[in-house]
Each structure stands twice: as structure tokens, then as C-alpha cells.
Specification:
The complex is a heterotetramer of chains A (312), B (259), C (360) and D (370). Chain A is mainly α and 312 residues long. Chain A contains eleven helices and no strands. At the A-C interface, helix 2, helix 3, helix 4, helix 5 and helix 6 of A face helix 4, helix 6, helix 7, helix 8 and helix 9 of C.
Chain lengths: 312, 259, 360, 370
């Protein structure tokens, strides 16, 4: 091989001190991030270990995993419900903005959507309690009376409307702007040539979308949905404020007893927690961290796998 | 102001891949040397190795020597930054700095290096360089507007003005007209004709008429096949290359029977 | 009247034959809504409940979809009918999504208006019991904490992005890219826990400071800054870097004077959006920045109130005169929304006016 | 051009920030030399910062106390972080705060340890300065008050009684018209001293019907609807229909409340009845000198006593390492226990003012703080 020769030739490119300093600063900044993250990880693990291996108070459950399972379930279930509502809507809105709305309006709508993505979650929480829950409560009663045979709507319905369905709607509203904004970018990048080719073949607008826009954006839709999912999984304050939680594992979405989520549970209980409870809560934070990590990894993997044929 | 370049047995690699093999050329001062050849034969790579710009691509390195008036560009301890200050370059697509005005673009080489210069010296330099690039009369009233507002041909001349503002000894041009319309191309070719009285000029072009019009000497590069290194096939007076080349491949290429 | 004109027009132009006139979908929509209103009125009359606009909208929408699909199927054929159905669905989805968003903004605006007065912006909560008081201390706290978060995360984020785009190769760069992604997934409450643990190490238990909050927020802000800066640096054409290098400009000056200025508008936009994102964070500040009724200008010492925590706290633990507390909570929410919106619009303005003017 | 434009924007922003940071209308001037505020009558010589943390139950009362105390002593800054009893005790033990508010007194294990803020070999004391009745609140159309014994309440909250027209309720309330509707029982979903006191009451008075024991966090298995914080419960009860819950009496507002059966009578909550419950209860045995921890007697049958109360303690050192802190704590706790302080708290938080006898005892202990 040519290993010796290149070393000699490359060595001749001497570096100036300023160059070295600048590169060093940049590298240090990057390494700092690794250190910070390492710090977070070490802290989480160290704090979580006593709860994970040791016994936990009897009232909380038989073991850490017994205790954390309903929370994990609630986290996944609420995020899942939110995604079911948010993804089709977000794709439809993105399509509306990119392909249905007049150009001027579309740009304005784009800004509005971006604005909404930044509304703090406390405000979503306030709104969920003050507006959404009372609005949904009669509907839940009706669902319980008329569709009670469905496992999802087993009565009795909640008297307050602060159910996991309400929380999921809040979550859906929160992630909607994020997914929409990403999908919009992706749809805008559809090669103009493909769209025009479809239209020139006499396709209707919808057929053009199914022929050119959606296939092009498929991986992007999945990736942005997963990013939205990540946000929904980790959302804290809005869920903590809206959801009437009791730590059960139940698929009923209109009842008084709803599974809590990991993040909301931490926010609610950390202030009054002490002793092993702190370790348990941090352990559950670690579980949440692992889930979001998995989800983000999945999204990266999908993007990496599909960009080759997705093209630009 | 202009210097001679001697390329001795130059091999250029990208990582383990040998892109160009065994090039040896003597480039005369105050003359235009054209590199021609089919796409992918390594002519641009050779050009970029003349001011160590190829190193910008990670993993690229060379074996051999390039002498600028006898001094090896690849000698130990040579700073590529200093090399580039003496050997200027004009790129395929005009690339004025979008954040800078016309005036700032011309002064970029000076200002970016934090060199101080009085206002009047700057004005002189701007006028001299823009005149040298045949652009002064077109832009003298709007030196404060962004350089990206000019037409393609003007932008390319602005880039040439920018390159000569740092008073290099050699000007490398990498297909400088390929993104331009015929009229702008003509303007650049005229400019090259004027510039060669002061600078050593090396130009890569895929346009053989252009090579025959502007150059004094021509080097023909070719490649045996994909994955093989590019090689210098023939180097001679331009008139000879285009009328009576000594290698069959050159004749095939210049007469259009190739590829 | 119009119904008789339409067929004659279609007869005139063969290109418009077999096509619904432009007004047809609107007419169908009108009819559908009317029917919906009638049905809703009947229901309201029969059950004695209030007339429900929700019922009108739902019924009207479903009826319209059915009608337009059927009519289009009959006149224009199946392909066009599908197109019309989908158009209806897409527009409907958009309108549906607008409902909660408008409701949210209107609710906050109306409830927040109650205390949106001069006292609210010139008073703190010191010695305030029941009514009155203001959020000046929370606004100052939010501004200071956010500024410090930006001071920490902007340089780190930008230099990391520079490393990734301009220098990074090999495993370190891959690791950083990966872990920046991981970082975006840190739940905000975990960032707060971490900052608390970190400061408790040095300052002992019970430590509270605005700076701790800034550290927690910067943990959330850094990945956003890195991501957006990275994108912007990647957008800077390589031509410019080469042009600068070819002029004999060292690499660091090329980055500092050519690459960064070119990407500046995008970077500033990204940073502004990142600030807008973290300025509304509640959970970490609740844990580490704490809670006070007094003004505190010193981020390094003592508790510091911030707007989101203020809104949360006023809502969650009111005194006997609840309404005064709720009003303050909503007004704080309104102020927060306004700040976020101003930041966002500011980011747009920066992106619009400071972006390098594209040539042709 | 560009940079100067950006620069100008930065200057404007900085100017705005300066404007914001100008003094708040109701804050003392920060830059004035010490003692500058001597215009105030009977100028207080106290100055400095004091931080407290702990039970959120007394958060609103602390607000009133802080306001009252700071008005009298303008150079003092007191903060109270309603972070929760556990957090408050932990921070007090670690020396993070000068005093703690806690729904539970220090246990023996805690007392055996070190207290960072206190002088070596001195023990902190628990002072019952906040008494608050817990009301059982409900929202049933047309019903303002109900009589219930502890067993009925226990059955409702453990899910054994699920309908409002259950005979167990109807028997005790012959006059009320109760609907045939399901009961939504609302409980706190967060860790709470209110829950602890509520379940303690049920466990003590309705042993056979409340088998779940005493806990701070409502376990998942026991059913009912969870709500975050006192406001969450009150919100849930008042916004829902046919709901019942338990909350600080101060927040009961217009909701219907339950009168508890004590002995042969039904006692509605009142401030006096709640304070009486504390006076009727014995002290915790075996405590060190000065500690006033109360062992609430939930099963009392004394007339006019409302035993479903929450006591919150102020925990303070008797001997501080830092004399300045000691001075502040002494003055502040003295104010809280005073008639004026208790009245201020009652007005803002609706707690029951402590009785005069208890006040005497508390003030005697406060006097010893050094």
C-alpha cells in the first residue's frame, strides 16, 4: 500500500497558529457537547441505579419495572393517540399549503404554522384545562352511553373531561405545527419536473400528488412524524396540567382513570419527592430518555435508508 | 512579475486512488498554456495542484514536484496559503462573495488577510485591478453595490480583478468561460490576451477553438478508462497540436473524432 | 336562473364540457350547511339542548363531501370526483386544525386582557397579597436567564457546527453529530434535574439561581443552534470557500470572514428561533431557577422568577382570591406568547432583510 | 452596512433591556445605601435575606406573611419556595434554607442526623403555625351540604359506593334530593400532605372500610380521578358534574361541603372547630424540649371539633450557626405566630388561626432562638 508516501507528502502542509487555534476552539466546542451529554448520562444512571436494583416502597409496586411500566404505557399510548390524529392532519395541511392554497396565502400560512410551533407548553396546558376539557366532556358522556361496547369507550365517562384523549388532543395540537412545517419543506422540494410531467399526462391535482409529491416525500413524512413523536413523548407541562392521571394501564380513553406519562409524572411528583422516590423518578427519566433515543435513532435510520432513492 | 512553472513527474492521488500520473510540463512565463482533454482526464486536478488548491478536498495529496522559478511548492515547510497568494485562480463559475460590494470583492484578497491599506491606496488598487480586468468602465459608478448583482460575464471579470488585485505571478483559470454566453466569452478571451503580457497564465478549457485562439502552448491529457489515472499525452506549441500533432490520440481528439 | 345558463355555456365551449361550473361546489357547500343547520335546529328543539355550531359544521361538511363527490361522479367522472373529494378533505383538515389554534390564541388574548395593564408591567409581586401586583420581576428574570442561556449556547453551538462542517471528519465528527441528535431528545425536565445536580455539587443542596436555569436551557438550546447553523453553513457554496482560499486567505479567516458572514442571516434566524423555543420552558426552571416574589437582577445568586414559572405557579397555587391569581396567570401567558411571536417575527425580518442579496 | 444594522438592532435591544430593568414601582430602591429607607415610621433595623422552602399547603399563607413582614421591615427579603414538604425538609437539613415548612414533623431518623444550618449539638424544633381544615367538597346540582360519617366517605373514595342515591348516603341525609348518577371521586394525583391527612383520618376513623392505609400518593389501584394540586381538584370538582373530592377548606368556595360525624353530631368545617381539633390533640411523646409536634386525635368525639385538619409546621433551629439568620428567623416566626400574622394568613389562605394557648407556647419557643 501507499501508506508511507502520503504521510510524507501531507506533512508538508504546515499550519498557521491562528488556524490551529481556530480549529482547536471548534473541536473543543464539539467535545464540550459530548462532555455535557456524558455528564447528563452519568448523572441519570448514577441516580437511577439505586431505584432500579434496590427495593422500592411497597405502595409503589413490586419492583422498579412494575412501577415504571404503567407510566411507559401511558407515555406511548398518549403519544400514539396524538400521532394518529396529528399525522394525517399535518400531511393534509402541508398539502393544502403547498398545493391547494393560493401562493400568497400559502406563505402567510407557513409563517403562522412556524409561530404556533413555538407556543410554550404551559400555555397549551392552560388552554387544555380551561377550554378543551369542558368542551369534550359532554362528548365523552355521549360516547360512553352510545359506544360503550367499544373497549376504547368503556363507561363510566370522566366527569371532568381531563382524560388521556383530551391530553392526546393537546399533544396533537402541539406537534401538528412541527410535523406540518417539516412536511411543507419536503413537499416544496418535490422536483418541479416530476409534477409537471404528471400534470402534462392529464392527471388531476390529486393524481399528480399521488404520482409525484407523496412518493417523493414518503421518507420525509415518516421522519418528520417521528420527530413529532419524539416531542410528544417528552412533553411535560401540558400533559401534567391537563391529564387526570392515576397510573393504571388502560386503553379506555374517556374514563376517569388514565395512565400517566413519564414526563408528567416527574413534573408532578419531583417537587415533593425525597429519598428513594427521587431515584425512581430519575430512573423513569432514564427510561424516557432511552425511548426518545430509540425513536430518534429510528428516524435517522429511515432518513439514511431512504434518501438514496428519495433524491432531491 | 511572472514566473516559470516546472512540473516534474507529478502523481496526484485522492486517498488511495491515483487520479493523475507522471505529468511533466514546463510552463513559460508571459504566455498562455492551455490544458485540454476529455472530461475526467485530470486536467483540472493538475491545474488545482499548481496552487495547492486540490488539498482542500480531504484525502488529496501529491507525489512529485512543482517548481515556481525553481522553488518547490511541495517542499517541506511550505505554507499553501503563501503559495496561493502568488498563484491566483479563477474558477469555472463566477463566484463573487455575496456579502460584499464590488469594491470589497476586489479588495477581498487584501482585506481578508487583515492587511492595512490607506483609503487612497485601496482606491488605486480597485481601479487598477478593475481596469486590468476590463470592467472599470462598466462598474465605476456602482462600486458600492453587491457583486452578485452583475451579469455572469461581468462577475467573471470581477473574479479576475479580484485575483489580480493580490498581484500574483501566475493566474490559473479553470474553464473560466464555460458558464458564460459567447459575447462574455469573447470579452474574457480578449482579457486573457492582454493579461499574458504581465502574467503566466494556465487555462483549462474543454473548448478547443478557445484553446487554439488564446493559448501559445497546449497540453493534451487523456485517460485510458474509468478508474485509471489520467496522463499527459502531448505538450507542444498550440499551432502544432492543432495542425500536426505527433500522437494519434491527440489528432483524434482535436479533429473531433474522439468520444 | 343560473342553473339554466350553465348548460348553455357548457354547450358553447367543448373544452368546458362535462365539467362542473366554478360556483357549483360553493352552492353545494351552502346547501349542505343549511341542511346541517336545520338538522341541528331540530336536534336542539327535540332534546332541549343549545343549538350547536359544532353539529352544523360537522353535518355540513360531511353532506358537502358526499354531495360534491356524487355530483362530480355523475357529471365529471370518477377521477375528477376523487380529486374533488380529496380537495374537500384537505381543506377540511386545514380548517379543522385552525379551530384549536384560533381557540388557543383567542382564549389567551381574552383571559389575558384582564390584567394587561400598566401595573402588570411595572410591579413585582413583592408584598402583594390577593389582587394587584405585576410580572416585572418575571420578565426581567426571563430576559436574564435567556440571555445567559444564549451566551452559553450560541458560541458552543456555532463553533460545534463550524467543526462539523469545516473540519469534522472521522469518528469524532460522527459521534458529535449523533449525540447532538440524542441531545434534541433530552426531555426538558431531565435537563433541569441535571442542572440542579450539577450546581448542588458546588453550592450544596437547595441551590437556586438564574444561572442554573440558563445552564439547563442551554442544554436544550445547543442542539437547535448546532442543527440550524450546520444547515446554514452547508448552504454556503463551496465556490466561495475555494475563491477565498485561492486568494491566499488562511482557512480560519475564510471561515470567519467569508463563510460566516454569508450564512449570518440564517444563523441569526436559527438562534432567534432557538431562543423562542426555550423561552417558554417551564419544567427545568421550576426545579433550578426557583421561585420568588421579589426582583432579582443577579443571575448568580438567589432565586429568579421567570414568566412560564410565574404563569404555572399562579395557576396552580392561588390564594383565596383565586380570580386575581388566574388573571395574572393568563396575562403572563399572553405576555409570553407576545414575546415568542415578536422573536419569531424578528427572525423572519432578519432572514428577509439581512440575507445576502441573491444575484440573478 | 449589514453589521452596523445588526449592531443598531443590538443597541435597541440593550436599551430596551435597560428600560425593563429599571426599578419596579413597588420594590425598595436597590442602590440606596443601607438604611436609606429611614423615612418609614419606627424604622426597622432588620435587614438581610432569608429563604424558606417546603409545604405548598402553606404557600398562600406564606405569601401573606412575607408581604406583612416585609412591609414592616422594608430591608428584609424573604422567599418561600413551595417546593413540597419533603424537599423543604431536605433543603433545611442541607442548610439550603433558613427554615422549612412541612406537613409532617421531623422524624427520629432525621433528628438523629446533622443539620447544616444549626449550631452543633442543637436540635431544630417543629412549630405548628398553620392549621387548615380539609373540606370534603362535592358538586351535585341542588345540594349544598351533606352529612356523612367516615365510613361513607371511605366507601366513596375506595369505590364501594358508586352512586349518589346509595342508601348509605340517603339515610344520613333525609332532606337532600340525590340524583341517580355515578360518583366521580377526585383525588390528588401528586404527592400531597392533604392526601396524607385525609387518608390518615379515614384509616383512623373507618378502619373496617378504609383498609388501604395512609399514603401521600394515591395508588393506582384505588380508582377515582386524579387531579394535579389543590386547584386541580377544585377545578375538577367544580367543572365536572356529580363529583366529590377533598381539598383545603379555604378553596371550597361555593361548592357543597360535607359535615363530618363526630360523636353523635355532624360538624361542618369552621376555623374554630379546626383549631379546636389541634388543642384537643396530645403532643407527640418523647420529643425534645421546645418541639411542639402534635399527634392529631382523629377519633375524637368531643363536641364542636372538626378532626379532618392539616397541620403544617415551621421547622427552625433553636441555635443558628449564623446570628443574622437567627435574628431574621426569630422575628419572622414571631410575626407568623402573632395574632396579626395569623389573621393575615387567614385572609389570604383561609387557614384557621391558631388558638391563644398554642400561640403562647409557640412564642415562648421562638424567643429561645439564637
Amino acid at each position: 500500500m501507499t501508506t508511507a508516501a502520503p504521510a510524507a507528502s501531507r506533512a508538508t502542509a504546515t499550519k498557521r497558529p491562528a488556524d490551529i487555534a481556530f480549529q482547536a476552539v471548534s473541536t473543543v466546542a464539539g467535545v464540550l457537547i459530548l462532555i455535557a451529554l456524558g455528564g447528563v448520562a452519568i448523572f441519570l444512571v448514577a441516580q437511577a441505579v439505586p431505584a432500579i436494583i434496590g427495593p422500592i416502597p411497597e405502595a409503589e409496586g413490586a419492583s422498579f419495572w412494575d412501577w415504571v411500566w404503567p407510566l411507559t404505557f401511558g407515555t406511548l399510548w398518549s403519544a400514539f393517540l396524538a400521532m394518529i390524529m396529528a399525522v394525517p392532519l399535518a400531511v393534509a395541511i402541508a398539502l393544502f399549503i403547498t398545493h391547494f392554497a393560493p401562493r400568497r396565502l400559502a406563505q402567510l400560512l407557513g409563517y403562522v404554522i412556524d409561530l404556533l410551533a413555538a407556543i410554550p407548553s404551559v400555555i397549551y396546558g392552560l388552554w387544555g384545562i380551561a377550554v378543551l376539557a369542558p368542551f369534550f366532556q359532554p362528548a365523552f358522556l355521549w360516547l360512553g352511553e352510545n359506544l360503550g361496547w367499544l373497549p376504547l369507550f368503556t363507561p363510566p365517562a370522566s366527569g371532568t373531561g381531563r382524560t388521556i384523549l383530551t391530553a392526546s388532543v393537546v399533544l396533537a395540537v402541539m406537534v401538528l405545527p412541527i410535523i406540518t412545517a417539516l412536511c411543507r419543506e419536503i413537499f416544496l422540494q418535490t422536483p418541479r419536473l416530476n409534477e409537471e410531467a404528471a400534470l402534462a399526462l392529464g392527471a388531476t391535482r390529486w393524481e399528480m400528488i399521488t404520482m409525484a409529491v407523496l412518493p417523493h416525500g414518503r421518507s420525509g413524512i415518516i421522519a418528520s412524524s417521528i420527530l413529532g413523536l419524539g416531542r410528544a413523548l417528552g412533553e411535560t407541562m401540558a400533559v401534567a396540567m391537563v391529564l387526570a392521571s392515576s397510573g393504571v394501564v388502560s386503553f379506555v380513553v374517556i374514563g376517569s382513570q388514565n395512565p400517566s406519562t413519564i414526563a408528567a409524572n416527574i413534573a408532578l411528583r419531583f417537587p415533593e419527592a425525597h429519598g428513594i422516590t427521587v431515584n425512581m423518578l430519575i430512573g423513569s427519566g432514564l427510561v424516557l430518555f432511552a425511548i426518545t433515543l430509540l425513536v430518534n435513532g429510528l428516524s435517522r435510520w429511515i432518513i439514511a435508508k431512504t434518501t438514496v432513492d428519495g433524491g432531491r | 512579475m511572472s514566473k516559470r512553472i516546472e512540473i516534474n513527474d507529478l502523481d496526484i492521488y485522492y486517498g488511495d486512488f491515483k487520479a493523475v500520473e507522471g505529468v511533466s510540463v514546463d510552463i513559460e512565463p508571459r504566455a498562455v498554456t492551455a490544458f485540454i482533454g476529455p472530461s475526467g482526464c485530470g486536467k483540472s486536478t493538475v491545474l488545482r495542484s499548481l496552487n495547492r488548491m486540490h488539498e482542500v478536498i480531504s484525502g488529496a495529496w501529491v507525489d512529485g514536484e512543482v517548481l515556481l522559478d525553481g522553488a518547490n511548492l511541495y517542499g517541506p515547510g511550505v505554507d499553501p496559503v503563501n503559495v496561493r497568494r502568488q498563484i491566483g485562480m479563477v474558477f469555472q463559475r463566477p463566484n463573487p462573495f455575496p456579502t460584499m460590494t464590488i469594491r470589497e470583492n476586489v479588495l477581498a484578497g487584501v482585506m481578508l488577510n487583515n492587511r492595512r491599506m490607506s483609503k487612497s491606496d485601496q482606491d488605486d488598487l480597485v481601479e487598477r485591478s478593475l481596469r486590468g480586468a476590463n470592467l472599470w468602465n462598466e462598474v465605476k459608478d456602482r462600486l458600492g453595490v453587491p457583486g452578485s448583482g452583475l451579469s455572469g460575464g461581468q462577475q467573471q471579470r470581477l473574479c479576475i480583478a479580484r485575483a489580480i488585485a493580490v498581484s500574483p505571478d501566475v493566474l490559473l483559470m479553470d474553464e473560466p468561460c464555460s458558464a458564460l454566453d459567447p459575447i462574455s466569452t469573447l470579452a474574457i478571451e480578449d482579457l486573457i490576451e492582454e493579461l499574458k503580457t504581465e502574467y503566466t497564465i494556465v487555462i483549462v478549457t474543454h473548448n478547443m477553438q478557445q484553446a487554439s485562439r488564446v493559448s501559445d502552448k497546449t497540453a493534451f491529457f487523456n485517460i485510458a478508462g474509468t478508474g485509471k489515472p489520467g496522463k499527459l499525452i502531448e505538450f507542444d506549441e498550440t499551432a502544432k497540436i492543432f495542425s500536426n500533432p505527433s500522437v494519434q490520440a491527440t489528432e483524434d481528439y482535436v479533429s473531433g473524432r474522439f468520444g | 336562473m343560473t342553473a339554466t345558463i350553465a348548460p348553455t355555456r357548457t354547450a358553447q365551449n367543448p373544452l368546458t364540457a362535462g365539467q362542473l361550473p366554478r360556483w357549483a361546489p360553493w352552492a353545494l357547500l351552502g346547501v349542505a350547511v343549511l341542511i346541517g343547520a336545520a338538522v341541528a335546529g331540530l336536534i336542539a328543539g327535540a332534546s332541549g339542548t343549545a343549538f350547536s355550531l359544532v353539529t352544523v359544521a360537522l353535518l355540513g361538511f360531511v353532506l358537502y363531501l358526499v354531495a360534491v363527490t356524487v355530483v362530480s361522479q355523475l357529471i365529471e367522472g370518477g377521477r375528477k370526483a376523487t380529486d374533488r373529494l380529496v380537495t374537500g378533505l384537505v381543506v377540511g383538515a386545514f380548517l379543522l386544525a385552525l379551530v384549536p389554534l384560533i381557540s388557543l390564541v383567542v382564549t389567551v388574548a381574552i383571559n389575558g386582557a384582564a390584567r394587561f395593564d400598566l401595573e402588570f408591567f411595572t410591579y413585582t409581586m413583592r408584598n402583594v397579597v390577593g389582587e394587584g401586583g405585576g410580572v416585572l420581576h418575571a420578565i426581567v428574570g426571563t430576559v436574564l436567564v435567556t440571555i445567559w442561556a444564549a451566551i452559553i449556547s450560541v458560541p458552543v453551538g456555532i463553533f460545534t457546527a463550524i467543526y462539523l462542517v469545516e473540519y469534522g471528519k472521522g469518528s469524532l465528527s460522527k459521534a458529535i453529530t449523533f449525540f447532538v441528535d440524542v441531545m434534541t431528545g433530552i426531555p426538558s425536565i431531565v435537563a433541569g434535574l441535571f442542572a440542579y445536580a450539577l450546581f448542588a455539587l458546588f453550592a450544596g443542596e437547595g441551590v437556586r439561581s438564574g444561572f442554573g436555569g440558563a445552564v439547563a436551557l442551554s442544554l436544550l438550546m445547543i442542539p437547535t443552534v448546532v442543527r440550524s447553523t450546520e444547515e446554514m453553513l452547508k448552504l454556503v457554496p463551496n465556490d466561495l470557500r475555494e475563491a477565498s482560499l485561492a486568494l491566499g486567505v488562511p482557512k480560519w479567516l475564510t471561515i470567519a470572514k467569508v463563510v460566516l458572514p454569508t450564512a449570518l442571516a440564517g444563523i441569526v434566524t436559527g438562534v432567534t428561533l432557538a431562543i423562542a423555543r426555550v423561552i417558554g420552558e417551564t419544567a427545568p426552571l421550576l426545579i433550578i431557577a426557583g421561585f420568588t416574589t421579589n426582583m432579582n437582577y443577579n443571575v448568580f445568586d438567589g432565586r429568579m422568577m421567570t414568566l412560564p414559572v410565574f404563569a404555572f405557579n399562579q395557576y396552580v397555587s392561588p390564594g383565596v382570591q383565586e380570580q386575581a391569581y388566574f388573571d395574572r396567570a393568563w396575562s403572563a401567558a399572553l405576555v409570553l406568547i407576545l414575546i415568542v411571536m415578536i422573536l419569531n417575527i424578528g427572525a423572519r425580518v432578519i432572514a428577509h432583510f439581512f440575507a445576502p442579496k441573491a444575484g440573478r | 452596512m449589514k453589521f452596523t444594522k445588526l449592531g443598531r438592532a443590538a443597541v435597541v435591544a440593550a436599551a430596551g433591556a435597560l428600560l425593563l430593568s429599571s426599578c419596579a414601582a413597588n420594590e425598595p430602591a436597590a442602590t440606596e445605601p443601607a438604611g436609606g429607607d429611614s423615612a418609614a415610621p419606627e424604622a426597622s433595623t432588620l435587614s438581610g435575606d432569608l429563604a424558606g422552602a417546603g409545604a405548598s399547603s402553606m404557600g398562600a399563607a406564606q405569601e401573606a406573611w412575607i408581604a406583612g413582614f416585609q412591609t414592616a421591615n422594608p430591608d428584609v427579603n424573604i422567599t418561600y419556595d413551595p417546593a413540597g414538604s419533603g424537599a423543604g425538609r431536605e433543603q433545611f437539613i442541607a442548610g439550603g434554607v433558613g427554615f422549612a415548612g412541612s406537613d409532617a414533623y421531623l422524624d427520629d431518623e432525621e433528628l438523629a442526623g446533622e443539620f447544616a444550618a444549626c449550631a452543633p449539638d442543637s436540635l431544630p424544633v417543629d412549630l405548628p403555625i398553620y392549621i387548615s381544615p380539609i373540606a370534603v367538597i362535592f358538586n351535585v346540582e341542588g345540594v349544598d351540604s351533606l352529612n356523612m360519617d367516615a365510613a361513607t366517605i371511605a366507601k366513596i373514595f375506595s369505590g364501594q359506593i358508586t352512586n349518589w342515591n346509595d342508601p348509605a348516603i340517603a339515610e344520613q341525609n333525609p332532606e337532600a334530593t340525590l340524583p341517580d348518577a355515578a360518583i366521580t371521586a377526585v383525588h390528588r394525583s401528586d404527592d400531597s400532605g392533604t392526601t396524607e391527612n385525609f387518608t390518615e383520618y379515614l384509616a383512623a376513623t373507618a378502619e373496617s372500610d378504609w383498609t388501604e392505609g395512609v399514603f401521600e400518593t394515591w395508588p393506582a389501584a384505588y380508582g377515582g380521578e386524579g387531579a394535579q394540586g389543590t386547584s386541580g381538584v377544585v377545578d375538577a370538582v367544580s367543572n365536572g358534574t356529580n363529583t366529590i373530592g377533598y381539598a383545603d377548606a379555604s378553596r371550597a368556595g361555593d361548592l357543597g361541603t360535607v359535615a363530618l360525624q363526630v360523636g353523635e353530631e355532624y360538624v361542618p368545617f369552621t376555623a374554630e372547630a379546626a383549631a379546636a381539633a389541634v388543642d384537643a390533640s396530645p403532643r407527640v411523646e418523647g420529643r425534645h424540649e421546645g418541639d411542639l409536634a402534635v399527634d392529631l386525635d382523629r377519633t375524637t368525639t368531643e363536641a364542636g371539633v372538626y378532626p379532618l385538619v392539616l397541620i403544617s409546621y415551621a421547622i427552625a433551629c433553636t441555635d443558628y450557626e449564623d446570628d443574622a439568620t437567627a435574628e431574621l428567623v426569630k422575628a419572622y416566626l414571631g410575626y407568623i405566630a402573632s395574632e396579626e400574622g395569623q389573621q393575615a394568613g387567614a385572609e389570604n389562605a383561609g387557614n384557621a388561626p391558631i388558638s391563644d394557648e398554642l400561640r403562647e407556647e409557640i412564642l415562648a419557643v421562638v424567643d429561645t432562638i439564637q
